[in-house]
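Listing S7. Sequence submitted for prediction.
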Amino acid sequence: MRVIVTRPAAQAAQWVGWLRGHGIDAVALPLIEIAGPPDATAVQQAWRDLPEQKLVVFVSPNAAEQFFAHAPPGALWPDAVEAASTGPGTTQALQRLAVPAAAIVEPPADAAQFDSEALWQRLAARDWRGAPVLVVRGDGGRDWLAQTLRERGAQVAFVAAYHRAAPRFDAAQRQLLDAALADPRHHLWLFSSSEAIAHLMAARAGVVWSAACALASHPRIAQHARDCGFGVVHEVRPTLEAVVACIQSIHRE
């Protein structure tokens, strides 16, 4: 069974390498295209205002990478500011970008899911009254954590560090997609975003997915895949170990 990794290009390539290192036939078919920020000047202003923040929340690895890619020359992470991460991938990106490990707040390692709700477990006991918080994200997204912080008295602002778009498939990618549709039982879709599923549905409108199998890294994503007609959907924690174990279990069936 070939595993189709649907993350944006940079993360998809990384995951393909990891999975192949475990003997799994994996290929990348990015279903979300990442572009620069809608307003680069807003990102640079956010950098200048960083020392005033109590906490900066990064919603994904792309948020971290694009925020730092558009930093003013010579900009460094302020010593007194914490960076919040929604999961291991975002934490690794922040550490690669020279954010000190001691400054990063993330969900517990044994959290059932890596998301805003799990991150809140680390933040809920603090006093947020009047605290300035910046949320770094794409152009849009869930507001649950921001709303929760506001309800606790935080002053929350947003900056869009990148733009998400539907993929533009090249010839090889279209061939891969056609092969997966022609032989669904020998392909396994790995989804980490409901938006990626929506882009897939739009790219092949009218396709019946009842013979297709998917892995989804969050219950909301899994439900979206089911709602779109995927016949078999497995929920899996978004860690390499969990994904590999799930794929190996499917292979043994």
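Caption to Listing S7: primary sequence and predicted structure tokens for the chain studied. The mean pLDDT is 94. The chain has two domains: 2-32+167-252, 35-164.
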